[in-house]
Design brief:
Rossmann fold; 9 helices; alpha/beta
């Protein structure tokens, strides 16, 4: 199986590129953001708990996310692989994901890091907030999310470099140019 971790700050294009990867390579897409937003929309207990963290610009507790991901991962039958979009976000989560996959005789094949300058990220997120009405795409929450990303999530870059799975992707340019770079990186590990 081809298991891809797509990585980048909020607004880097993870969701957009994940859809393209999923379509081209026939992979299932697990977006932790989409999973959590669905739980919130359905007003489940998990959704209520998650909303409290998200509204504060905080990350969801690791144990909760791993349980959700394992359940979603296990629901895919006859899968060619999975794109993990928005997870892992910490080294502890990366370790937990590695263990969860190993328990299923699987592993991460590649980690794609979409690099976008911070000013561009803020601009993209504010525009998305205006277009979609997403409550977390406002200046204050965006700044909090970027601080959390830079302090808690960015250290994963070195972790995945040590695992020999890291591939940097320039996240600025046309969607087609970015996707071409992503495809080359994925093809190099297939």
């Amino acid at each position: 199986m081809l298991n891809v971790v797509i990585f980048g700050a909020p607004g880097s294009g993870k969701g957009t590129q994940s859809e393209r990867i999923s379509e081209k390579y026939g992979l299932n897409h697990i977006s932790t953001g989409d999973v959590l937003r669905a739980e919130i929309k359905n007003n489940t207990e998990l959704g209520k708990t998650a909303k409290g963290y998200i509204d504060q610009g905080q990350l969801i507790p690791d144990e909760l996310m791993i349980d959700i991901l394992a359940s979603v991962f296990d629901s895919f039958k006859e899968s060619k692989g999975v794109i993990f979009d928005g997870f892992p976000r910490t080294i502890a989560q990366a370790d937990a994901l590695k263990k969860m996959l190993a328990d299923r005789s699987q592993k991460v094949s590649i980690m794609l890091d979409l690099k976008v300058p911070e000013e561009e990220l803020i601009d993209r997120l504010l525009k998305r907030g205006l277009a979609t009405g997403r409550a977390d795409d406002n200046e204050e929450t965006i700044q909090k999310r970027l601080v959390v990303y830079n302090t808690q999530t960015a250290p994963l870059i070195d972790w995945y470099k040590e695992e020999k799975l890291y591939h940097k992707i320039d996240g600025v340019g046309s969607m087609e140019e970015i996707f071409e770079d992503i495809s080359q990186a994925i093809n190099s590990v297939k």
